[in-house]
Amino acid sequence: MIYANKIYIYSEYCFFLLFLFSFILPPLFPKKIFFALSLVLLFLGFLYRGRLSVPYINPLIFVLFFYIYWCMYPLGNVDFDVSTQFFLSTLMLFLFYSVVHFRLDVNIHFKYAGFLLAFIALYASVGFFGFILNLPFSSELIDFYIFHSLGFLGERNFGVIVLPMFHFVSTPVLLVLLSLVVINSHGAINASRMLVVFGLLSVIFLSGSRAIFLTAFATTFMLYYFYASRGFRFFLLLFFVFLFYLFF
């Protein structure tokens, strides 16, 4: 039992770090390390318990299908890079084993990693506008993300106004985090919840495109509209139309 508890704890940390590095450093190698560790922990859990607590035949068939496609590369008419990418991507299916087998709370890990991502995106975005607030190491952070194609500089048009921006590649992840915050609060409107919601919307506005921001706002609107009373729904509709006219 002691070993089982240790494996469970290690799996919790491993999943959090996997989420974190997948968000802040998507194409770089750290996430691959924690992905491999999660599979190792799953294997150790299997050895300890002697069986998996989830069905395994369907994912194995799915992986086998792409493995056959990958093996057909020497025969020609098969793109090796594409087939390798598809085959390796199917290995992510084994993460479902870990989630179910160890009964991990994915939402908690996603939230913690997502809020850290929001902080980094906010720090880099505010640092980009150095004339507003000169943050230490912000320029080095921006250069690092641009060098590794994790962010890029661009412009956004608001009518005749053109503003520079630092686009963060992982910003769309914050859409999921924003939705989780609203759903878990059941649409409750209080100071703390609204502060978090407006904070995330602000980060998305600073680090994402107009389309991403509109998607984030529309998602928030629909979720609050679902939980709101009739009178408040009418107010939300008017506010959404106003913002749509303002941005587009």
Automatic annotation (TrEMBL):
Which species does the entry assign this protein to? Agarivorans albus MKT 106
Q: What is the lineage of its organism?
A: Bacteria, Pseudomonadati, Pseudomonadota, Gammaproteobacteria, Alteromonadales
Q: What is this protein called?
A: O-antigen polymerase
> What are the record keywords, sorted?
Membrane, Transmembrane, Transmembrane helix
Report TM segments. 7-26, 32-49, 56-76, 82-100, 112-137, 157-183, 195-218, 224-247
Highest taxon above the source species? Bacteria
